[in-house]
Design a protein that fits this description.
The chain is an alpha/beta fold. The chain is 35% helix and 14% strand. The longest helix has 20 residues. It is elongated. The termini are far apart.
């Protein structure tokens, strides 16, 4: 039986309650050297749902795993049909107040870096520089055979030509860009190979059950080492890919601050968890610091 990766987390201990006091976050930003780690929750105000919050996609949708994608041709067909449709919604999404505030903090020299678990590119679109995309980006495609990279837009145009008339209506879009479609809607959607070698194409994102590239992890560990504090924005920290950096910061004695409305797997390592909507919270923090947000 194939084991599925950890997709959910239930608190097994008493965790400190969330607060509405932004002062520790403001103080950390004012001191500078803050490393931001963001998750799907920062993009919900842009119309992209998160995984685990109220109404999150995991309550109705199981994300594609690397094992399924690489071993099951029909699973790949479903994924590419749904992702091809979902990409259109992702490209219409615009940065929200949370993304813009993070960019403003960076431009004012308050941040040491930004790591995001998101694949939507909204931090970059908001103006943040040097964002580390921990889980990759939907804007790129990689061949699993020859390793060639190509723009997602090129593949999208090829898929449109190969699947004329493919215009199903999706019930919902998920944080990984995967639209909710029935098998009937997927139909005989045609999946295309790599133009270089004919191999399997995959979006350049880390699927559930797939490891983050080691060099990327080490780069993020070095960012944590260099930072004065770690500010987690909109992540439940359920999966180890993000939680390990919280643990590293806490073990090094660096303050960990979390802004997330629901409890997280990292709360016991945190100085505080601010249970406020991200856009409003970060905009308020910027105002206290006299940092204009465009």
């Amino acid at each position: 039986m194939r084991m599925r990766p950890t997709l959910s987390w239930t608190p097994t201990e008493d965790l400190p309650p969330g607060t509405t006091d932004l002062e520790p976050v403001v103080a950390a930003l004012d001191a500078g050297g803050v490393l931001v780690l963001s998750g799907a929750g920062i993009s919900t105000e842009s119309g992209i749902p998160d995984y685990r919050g109220e109404g999150g996609s995991l309550s109705r949708h199981t994300p594609m795993t690397y094992q399924e994608f690489t071993t099951d041709a029909q699973a790949r067909r479903r994924y590419w049909a749904r992702s091809h449709l979902g990409l259109r919604t992702f490209r219409r999404a615009r940065p929200n107040a949370g993304h813009l505030a993070v960019a403003a903090f960076g431009h004012h020299g308050l941040l040491s870096g930004v790591i995001t678990q998101n694949v939507d590119g909204l931090h970059g679109a908001a103006g943040s520089d040097g964002v580390v995309e921990l889980h990759g980006s939907l804007d790129r495609v990689v061949c699993l055979s020859c390793g060639a990279f190509s723009p997602r837009g090129d593949l999208a145009r090829r898929l449109e030509k190969a699947n004329p008339g493919f215009e199903p209506r999706a019930a919902r879009i998920n944080p990984d860009g995967d639209a909710d479609l029935s098998d009937e809607q997927v139909g005989d959607f045609r999946v295309l190979p790599c133009t270089v070698c004919g191999g399997l194409l995959k979006p350049d994102v880390v699927f559930f059950g797939e490891a983050v590239p080691p060099r990327r992890v080490e780069h993020c560990r070095e960012l944590v080492h260099q930072a004065a504090s770690l500010l987690v924005l909109g992540s439940s920290l359920t999966v180890m890919s993000g939680l390990r950096f919280v643990r590293q910061a806490a073990q090094a004695g660096k303050p960990v601050l979390i802004v997330n409305q629901d409890p997280t797997r990292g709360d016991r390592h945190a100085l505080t968890r601010v249970a406020l909507p991200l856009g409003a919270a970060l905009t308020a923090a910027a105002a206290r610091l006299d940092v204009p947000v465009r």
